[in-house]
Amino acid sequence: FVANSGYGDYLANFPKAGTISVIDISSNQVIKELYCGPNAIEVKVNAKRNTLYGVYYHLPSETDSVGGIVEYDLSTLKETRRIRIRSNALNFSHSGDSLVFATDSGVMYADLNQAELTPKLMIANPNTDEKWYSVAVSPDNRLFIGNAKNYQMQGELLIYNFTVGGSLLNKFQIGINPNTILFY
User: Fold this and answer.
1) How many angstroms separate the CA atoms of 180 and 158, rounded?
2) pTM over 0.70
3) Hey, which bits of the chain come out as E strands?
């Protein structure tokens, strides 16, 4: 799965901008294009639920620039749910039952067992001038947040309890724009 962003307004009118390409790796052929949103930026597979999620931004030239998250069924490649929200990063709870995503106001979550994807605030960002740019849940159920601050200085890794209103456990200074957190 490949997110084809179009770099915001820059290539928005190009073919495939705003889509997710589904590629058969054995033949190296695109088998389907899924429309995500005007500026598709991220894709994640939830293997436990057999779903694909795409994150999109709206185009900067649009006055109602919000963005959103789209859910697709992996068996049919059909869209099943969509929410409009500005999300900087997307991941899943360790159980795979919740979406976890960073927004300008903090980290939100949505229960995937519910009929609607209803975002709820988990951890508020105490300094909304700083941009929380990545998010992940560790195997031992802690919430890791990559704080890019202002995108021009050293960022930090924040570690919270994975609960609504969870407490800050630790933080570490790291490089500029921490955009991916992985656990091995």
Assistant:
1) 13
2) yes
3) 2-4, 19-24, 29-35, 39-46, 51-57, 68-73, 78-84, 89-92, 98-102, 106-111, 120-124, 131-137, 142-149, 156-161, 168-173
Query: End-to-end alpha-carbon separation of the chain, Å?
Result: 22
C-alpha 1/C-alpha 118 separation (Å) is: 25
Tens of pLDDT, residue by residue over 101-149, are 998 899 999 999 999 999 999 999 999 899 998 999 999 999 999 999 9
Residue from 1, 80, 3 nearest 36 by CA: 3
pLDDT, position 13? 74
Strands 98-102, 106-111: pairing kind: antiparallel
Residue that is written with structure tokens 């006055």 in the block: 63
Judge contact between 143 and 123, C-beta under 8 A: yes
3-state helix, strand, coil in the chain (%, to 5): 0, 50, 50
